Amino acid sequence: MSKNYDKFRQQRLGGSRWVDKYAIGELDFKDENSHKRDDHDNEPWKAFQYVSFGSGSSGNCSFLGNENGGVLIDAGIDPEHVYRDLEANGIKLSKVKGILLTHDHADHIRYAYKIVRENKHMRIYCTPRLMGGLLRHHNVSRRIKDYQVSIFKEIPFFLAGMKITAFDTSHDAIDNMGFSFEAGGKHFVVATDMGVITERAAHYMQQANYLMIESNYDRTMLDTGKYPEYLKARVRGAKGHLDNEVAAQFVASNYHDGLKWVFLCHLSNDNNTPDVALQAMMRALKERGVSVGDGSFAPIEREKDIQVYALPRYDTSTWFVLED
Question: What is residue 100's three-state secondary structure?
Answer without folding.
Answer: strand
